[in-house]
Structure formats: C-alpha cells, structure tokens
Specification:
9-stranded mixed beta sheet; alpha/beta; single chain; Aminopeptidase; 14 helices; globular
Length: 353
C-alpha cells in the first residue's frame, strides 16, 4: 500500500510553491520598475530641463517654485492658488503682466517661477547655440515691509533701476535659444549682482544714492530678504550644472552721466582666448546701432560673472551696459519704445558672425 504524503508536508509544498510564484511575480514587477526607472533616468539625462527640476527636487526647492509652460500659467493666471503663491499682490500683478505679454508670441516656452519674483524662461535647444541671459537689475517690486523703511522716493529708485532692460535683452533668448533669468524684485531690496555681505544696501554704500534707509532693517527682515538671494544662486548654479551654454550674458543699463558711452561691454572675466569674438561683437553692435561701443567703461563686470568664472574659468561670461539716455527721457521718467525696439533688434545680431 502506497504511503500517503503527510498533510503538513503537502501544505508546506503548496505554501512554498505559492511563495515561489510570488517571488517570481515580484521579480518581474521589480524588473519592470527598474526598467521604467532607467528609462526615466535616461530621459532626465537627455532632457536638461527635467534634470534641472530633479536637482531642484533634491535640494528641496520644488515646493518653493512653480514650473510649466507660459501657456499653462496664462490659463491659470487668475486662479486663486496662482495668485497666493507670490509674496504679495503687487508682485503677482507684475508676473501676470509679463505672462500675458509673452504668451502672445512664446506660449510653448517653459517658465520657472519663485515666489519672490525670479522668472526663468527656458528656450534651450540641445546641441545648438544657447545663451544664459541675466537681467537682475530691472525689477521694481519692493515688499511693503521694506518700502516703509526706505528714505528714498520711488522716482529715485525708478531712475536707478535698469528699467526696460527685460524688453531690450529678452528677445535674444526668446528668439534664438537659451535660458533667461529675469528678476522682478528691485535691486534696492536685494542686489543679486553683489557679494552676499553687500547684497543689501546700506546708507552711504552707493555712489549716487546716499540716504537709502530712514530706519534699519531688523535681523529677521534681513534674513528673509537674503533667502531670495540664496534661492537665486541655487537656481543659477543648478542651471549651469544641468545645461551647456556657449555664452553667459549679464544685461544692464546705466544712468546717463557726463563722459559715459552710449554702449559698453564688460569683459573683465572673459578669457583672452575669446578676444577675437569680443572684437566682432563690438564691431557688429556698433554697425547695427550706429554708435560707439566701449570696453569696460564704466563697468567691467559684476559679482555674478566673477562667481561663474571662478567655477568655470573657460566659459565666455560678459556684461553689457546701455546708456539710459538712448531710450529714456532726460528726467528718467518715461521709456521711448522705438529706440528700445531698435536696440533689441541690434542685440539679437551681435553673435551673427
């Protein structure tokens, strides 16, 4: 008589078979997950913008920035959540105005926003000519808690800020390719183009404006302001890490003073190897504007360029200054649209050689 297999052994065999099937299924599942993860990783590596976002996430910045296309933000520009993302209503209105303006021509361009007014326009084209453009002195937004401590009038601040430079320089990237970092926050709140210890101006720190404050900022207020400085450099460094730029271009304007040129390039941090390119840029801009273009007069390059050139000594980094006398009235109150348009058109051609 054939001996029966004990029930406990039959049960154990069934359990072991079930475990084996489960392990096999899990292995297949894990294999699929790993393959999917590898596909995502490969896609991120091939896509600089996704790589940029992944690093922002790693640095715990994703919750502090918004990222999508201009068209997406245009559709949601009146949404409650979008309005409340920004530090106050005045800043929201400035951001909204820009989105409405650029949506008409560039709806598909990617846009990354911070709640203190830094806007990153992404028109990056892999394996093509790409510029990293910065316009960090054109902003006008001053938080109320800062404004109420200031001794200077809005008219003086307006004259000292690089009003209109976003409209002049921006099309270079939006039309040709690259990434443009534009700040809506005033330099009188925090100057991103200064060393951190000098980023918040003090009385007598500036050549043209002596009395800036009627009351000192409190330590917690300075800490809050410097958070925007830290966030700016985290964005800047991440972009440099994730993208390959042919040129870094820091765009500014200067107050019209005696002896100052109409236009000038600041090339203090440009490696000598690029000397012929600087010469061609100068010649092209002079030809297109019918104006003399100086070198390092009166400014040769600020802290942003110094910061980048220290990390990447072979990169082409330069600044440009436009005399406000070209595109503003003598009292520095009103913009002249035609000269601005002509300047913008000329600037888009300076690398056509």
């Amino acid at each position: 008589m054939k001996k029966k297999t004990p029930i406990w052994l039959r049960t154990s065999a069934k359990v072991l078979n079930k475990i084996g099937e489960t392990i096999s299924q899990q292995k297949k599942y894990y294999d699929v997950v790993i393959q999917d993860f590898k596909k995502i990783s490969d896609k991120i590596e091939r896509n600089p913008h996704l790589n940029f976002l992944s690093l922002l996430g790693a640095n715990k910045l994703i919750g502090e920035v918004l990222d999508n296309s201009i068209a997406y933000f245009y559709r949601n520009r009146n949404s409650y959540w979008f309005k409340k993302f920004f530090a106050d209503e005045e800043l929201y209105e400035l951001i909204k105005e820009d989105i409405e303006f650029y949506y008409k021509k560039y709806p598909k361009i990617k846009l990354t926003l911070t709640n203190n007014g830094t806007m990153v326009y992404d028109n990056y084209k892999p394996n093509q000519f790409n510029i990293l453009l910065l316009t960090v002195h054109g902003g006008t937004w001053i938080p109320e808690y800062v404004n109420e401590l200031m001794a200077i009038s809005k008219a003086i601040v307006y004259c000292e800020e690089d009003i209109g430079v976003d409209s002049i320089y921006g099309p270079l990237v939006l039309k040709k390719g690259g990434i443009w970092i534009n700040s809506k926050q005033s330099r009188f709140v925090c100057d991103f183009n200064r060393r951190p210890e000098n980023a918040i101006y003090t009385n007598n720190s500036e050549a043209r404006v002596k009395d800036i404050w009627k009351e000192d900022l409190k330590p917690y207020q300075k800490q809050k302001i410097m958070k925007s400085y830290k966030r700016f450099y985290e964005l800047l460094n991440t972009l440099i890490e994730t993208h390959r730029f042919n040129i870094v271009f820091d765009g500014h304007s200067m107050v019209n003073e005696p002896g100052r040129p109409s236009l000038s390039f600041g090339v203090k941090f440009v490696p000598q190897f690029y000397g012929p390119i600087v010469a061609e840029m100068r010649k092209t801009l002079s030809r297109e504007t019918k104006r003399q273009v100086d070198i390092n007069n009166p400014f040769s390059g600020g802290y942003i360029l110094e910061h980048l050139s220290a990390q990447f000594p072979d990169i082409f980094v330069f600044s440009m200054e436009i005399n406000k006398g070209i595109y503003m009235d003598s009292k520095c109150l009103h913009l002249k649209k035609k000269p601005m348009k002509d300047l913008s058109k000329a600037i888009t051609k300076i690398f056509d050689f």
